[in-house]
What does this fold into?
Amino acid sequence: MDSVYIDPVLSDEERRAHLYRGQLFVYSPTAASMALIEFTRDMIRRAFGTLDPETAQFHMPVEEYAALLAELKPKFIHDPKSKECLRAILRDLRCDLEKTYFDVPRMRTATSDDYLTSGIAYAFHPHRDTWYSAPQCQINFWMPVYAIDPENAMAFHPRYWGEGVRNGSSEYNYAEWNRTSRASAAQHVKSDTRKQPKAEEPMELDPQIRLLPPPGGMIVFSGAQMHSTVPNTSGRTRFSIDFRTVNIDDVRGRVGAPNVDSACTGTTMGDYLRGTDLAHLPEELIAAYDTAPSVVA
Ligand SMILES: [Fe+2]
It folds into this structure.
């Protein structure tokens, strides 16, 4: 990886080829991305009532705050409007909706000053999504809901694009995780005991790259990219939206970023929905990626 493309005029094919080589993309807000931002802000506003969502954490007991997010986040994910906006965003970015499959958009929060960094507001340690059973062709989209600065952004760790890290991904299986851990996220208020794939050797996190698009601006990157949540010291909670896509040609052809160190089993392939009609990928393609754990726990 060596480049950050800003609003390039490229086809989706060309962009994917660059993403699989580790390049990063930043897009300015579009009408569709701003529609998603407005919809999200409205939902957040209703949840927090009279409190400013970016500073509400300083005025609420943490358990109450976690409970509020536990209600707000699934509501956002399951609202048909968020999927609708997402299709329009992909269209704006020249994706072929017949071939592009997306996972439902998620709302994330990164609270300031270590107020809540576990469970429902998990502060992501450096990781690749491919440690979590995402395919090598997964592409991630990330956008801030309110203005961000370096103290509450997300970070990329470019050294590890081409270099593996010893990590715990071999113990991660997506189906197993869904069965046991995800439902309990809201219970992890003080600490998070769920076993996640992490680096198992010291990492060199600097130099790192923190891209700062405006609200509704998008960072696009490969799911194999090493990235993390910046420890938030900004005094404001960061709200962001992210979603993932795969292109069926790449799924079929096993095209994607090189795998330098992911050893997880299972697959997220069953989660993606076709841009046109929300159909799942064909069963046989999902099954082809669904590897079983080598050791049965
Ligand atoms: Fe991630």
Summary: The helical segments are 12-19, 31-48, 62-78, 80-92, 174-180, 248-253, 283-289. The beta strands are 4-6, 24-27, 100-102, 106-110, 139-144, 154-156, 218-222, 227-229, 238-247, 273-274. The chain is about 25% helix and 15% strand. The CA atoms of residues 188 and 276 lie 37 Å apart.
